[in-house]
Amino acid sequence: MTLPILDSKLIQQSLEQYGYARISRVLTPEQCQHISQSYGQASLFRSRIVMQRYNFGAGEYQYFAYPLPAPIDQLRYWGYAALSPIANAWADALQLDRHFPEQLDDFLQRCHQHGQVRPTPLLLRYQAGDYNCLHQDLYGEHVFPLQMAIMLSQPGTDFQGGEFALTEQRPRMQSRIEVVPLAQGDAVIFPVQYRPARGSRGYHRVQMRHGVSRIHSGQRYMLGIIFHDAN
Ligand SMILES: O=C(O)CCC(=O)C(=O)O
Ligand SMILES: [Fe+2]
């Protein structure tokens, strides 16, 4: 699978300006369909979550099992390589005593040594009426601060509604929202928990959450790539 070259500097600028970065046409429609269709292949997954049961929203998702299918694994390595310099720049800006290794394997080894051994890449499926409440994907003490999601369905054709949304909660201010327009195959990169924002006295944290508005009709598949593993 050939993936586009990522420009870390441009991604970082967009994240700091808007709270997200969009990468167009990461996957072809055929690759998107292939991944969506794998939803029915139970052996690829370690667990299935029905969102209603946890009040997460409505819809369902499954976490892939190790070994990850090759395209999912490749996307995770590709994303990590471009995002680890940003993760380190952010840790420095926020004066956190934290360093993210250059290689995903080294970061995952750290997760695994601390009991976070279960893979987190996931495939989500929504039908008419479903939605995903604003949330943060934290799965333990070790958190890689950025994550990625890829739109597998064709908005407007396969489904209506179902917008990917982010909120930013700045200290002592009301929340700001961003809706990210995504075409089939596009990726969105966004902060897991918070991002740095420059203020009058250096950098401070802006808390972030993401979610999906109600799907009005049709079916919507999304691939989520989270870099830390879960405990
Ligand atoms: O379905 C979506 O667009 C949201 C996916 C999500 O929450 C995630 O990838 O962590
Ligand atoms: Fe999420």
Helix content percent band:
10-25%
Using the alpha-carbon principal axes, give the shape. Answer: globular
- The CATH architecture category equals Sandwich
Order of helices and strands: HEHEEEHHEEEEEEEEEE
Give me the number of helical elements. 4
Mean pLDDT comes to 97
- Which CATH class is shown? Mainly Beta
- Pairing-aware structural class of the strands and helices? alpha+beta
Radius of gyration: 17 Å
Distance between the termini: 30 Å
Low-confidence stretches: none
The ligands found in this model are:
2-oxoglutaric acid, fe (ii) ion
Our count of domains comes out at 1
* Full CATH superfamily name: q2cbj1_9rhob like domain
Strand content: 25-35%
The beta-strand count equals 14
Domain Fe2OG dioxygenase: 117-230
Pfam families: Oxygenase-NA
Family: Belongs to the iron/ascorbate-dependent oxidoreductase family.
GO molecular function: metal ion binding; oxidoreductase activity
Task: Explain this structure.
- This protein is of the alpha+beta class.
- It has four helices and 14 strands.
- The chain has helices at 8-18, 29-37, 70-93, 104-113, and strands spanning 21-23, 45-50, 57-58, 60-64, 122-127, 131-135, 146-151, 159-161, 164-169, 176-180, 187-191, 194-199, 202-212, 215-225.
- The strands form two sheets. Strands 1, 2, 4, 5, 7, 8, 11 and 14 form an eight-stranded antiparallel β-sheet that branches. Strands 3, 6, 9, 10, 12 and 13 form a six-stranded antiparallel β-sheet that branches.
- Helix 1 packs across helix 3 (70-93).
- The site of fe (ii) ion has 4 residues, from loops.
- Fe (ii) ion binds at residues 135, 137, 210, 224.
